Every structure is written in structure tokens, then in C-alpha cells.
Amino acid sequence: MLIGDDETVRDLTRGAVLLGTGGGGDPYIGQLLLQQEIREGRSARVIGLDELADDAFVVSVAGIGAPTVLIEHLQARGVCERLLAMMERHLDRRIDAIVPAEVGGMNSVIPLALGAQLGLPVVDADGMGRAFPHIEMVTFSVYGNRACPMVIGNELGDTVLIEQATSDRKVEDIARVVTGALGAMVYGVLYPMSGAELRRTAIANSLSYAMEIGRGIREARSASSNPVAALLGIVGDRSRGRFACELFDGKIIDIQRETRDGWHLATVTLAGLDDSAQRLELLLQNEFLVARQDGRTLCMVPDLIAVVDRETAEPINAERLKYGQRLKVLGLAAQEIMRRPECLAVFGPQAFGIDEPFVPIENLVAGS
Known about the structure:
Layout: E1 2-3, H1 6-19, H2 28-39, E2 44-47, E3 57-65, H3 79-91, E4 97-100, H4 106-118, E5 122-123, E6 125-126, H5 139-142, E7 150-153, E8 159-162, H6 168-181, E9 185-194, H7 195-201, E10 203-204, H8 206-222, H9 227-235, E11 244-260, E12 263-272, E13 279-285, E14 287-293, E15 296-300, E16 304-309, E17 326-332, H10 341-347, H11 361-364
Parallel strand pairs: 2-5, 3-4
Antiparallel strand pairs: 1-2, 3-9, 6-10, 7-8, 7-9, 11-12, 11-17, 12-13, 13-14, 14-15, 16-17
């Protein structure tokens, strides 16, 4: 599959924002980089997991840091290219393909722009099926691949190699300190692995799913049909093992946010449009972690919480939320692999300090 026109890029970025669950970085900058590659005559080539040779050398490329400061660190075209070259020199191996670490937000688009720039294929897969704030919160890590060696750099040319660490969580701790020192927003090349290892540990078809979501919203608007209903028809298609529902219809009445230790931390409060006494509270650490209506939990990690414009179904990043916006809050079931006990131990509610056991969204909303 080739991504070689602006409409497809916009579809992809729209779907990526939704799957980013509020975080993942605003894909606009990545979108501009990819569109520039297309205007210069290049395309991004997306391949399936089954197209990778067992001994192919694959790496992830991702932005790391607080999405709120991304606009202050516009990516120079050669940042990730320099980091890839560092990884190749360090391991004395040529990189055969790139895989997104997450499908949400900017981190789904940057690998495509880089792939188009260098002529490298991008694998239609990722390690989350959404976005998460920590490096170790990927299925790659849960099932035995290691984040190191990892190279980190910013747009100014500062680079750091993390050659070895005792765990991927320790890699996260080190990278977070480095990220703060380099301006709270960097790019990284990490999780070097073989094609066989990627097939065993990845979530398949992530990029094509994001494109399907974005295309569905666009086509519903063009047909003057209800775009939110069309979106829910895609992400909640029971015949394909999916579940999604509308959690809340309201407007933002309060936002408390801060950027601290490389994180975007916030609490967002909405009041119901039909019943202004109703309240929905969203807690986030880069991404939305939990949604509670009047104190009752409706959705929690690793299930996905997405916020969209109630008229156009345009997904909205957490850093773009503001007082008075009228929104619909949606909940989506995570991929089944993300709900396994070994995965919940790494990115379930307790990993974020939420003192509740994980309950699937379909069970939480069944009695509502």
C-alpha cells in the first residue's frame, strides 16, 4: 500500500488522533513533513507483517516527551535520519523497515514521513493499538523484545545513546531525564528486532485501521450523514470483534493542566448538555486514563477514551481542549492482547496509580 496523496494523509492523521486517546502528539507537524515528501514525488510504502522476512532488521521511531511543547520543537528534516544512521553504526546492521511504536497521534505519521524520505517500508503494525506515555508500555516489551539500544536526539543535534539497562522501565526512567534535559521533546529510535520477533509481538493492521477511521468520518461528512454515528459504526463493529459506545455528550466547564517532568498532566471536567447537573471527569497523563461520570467509572486504561467534536466527529488532542467546547466522549475496547494479565501488569490502571482493578468497558457500561 502506498500513501501518496494529501487526502489519504489527512484520513490517516484524523484516525491517528482518535486512536491517540488524547495524546500521542499532535500529528499536524508529521502530516506536513509527509505531505512535503509527497509533493517532492515520494510516497510512503506500507507493508503487512507477513511481507517481512524473518531476518529483517526493524526499529521503532517515536517522539518522546510532553505534547504541549511540541510546537516549540519543530522537527528538522534530518533529526530521525541522523538517529537511524547512529543505530545502524552502533549495531553494524542496515535497517530494513520501520514500525511505529504506537498508532496514536504524531507517532503514527513521523515513521511514514521518514520512510518516504529514506525509501524504507513502514510496517502496518504497532505495539499498542493506541498511545501510551511510557516506553515499556508496548506489546514488544511485554513479550520479550528490549528497548535498548536506543538513540535519542532533538532538533538541535544533541544525541544520547542508551546502550543497556536492567529493564525497559529503567530505559523509560533514563529517557525521561534525558528528555527533560533536551527540552521536554525529543525523538528516539528503539526496539531493534527481527521480522520474526515483530510478527510475534506486534498488533497488526494499525495504520490501515487509522486510515479506515479517518476515511469513514470524511465520507460521512461528504454524504451529509451523522459522522459520529458513522465513526461508532467503524470502531464498534461487533462483527469484527470491536466494541465502542458514546460515554458522554457535554461541554467543557473546567480544565486543570500542567506540564511536569516531561508529562502533560490534566483533569478535564464536562457538564451534560441534556442535564447540566451531570458531570464527566477525564484524567490524563499525556493520554486519557479514566473517565468517570458523577464518580462512577465508565472507561479505563488500556481501553481507549476519545474526544470528538459533537457535530463533525473531528477527534481532538488533549492539549487542544479548551473551555466551552461541545464534545462527545467515546469509549473503545482495546485489542484483546492488551487485556491479557501480563499486559495489564504493565499498562493497566495500577500502572498509573489508579486504585481500581481493570474492568472492560463493555461491562462497565452494561448497567448504565
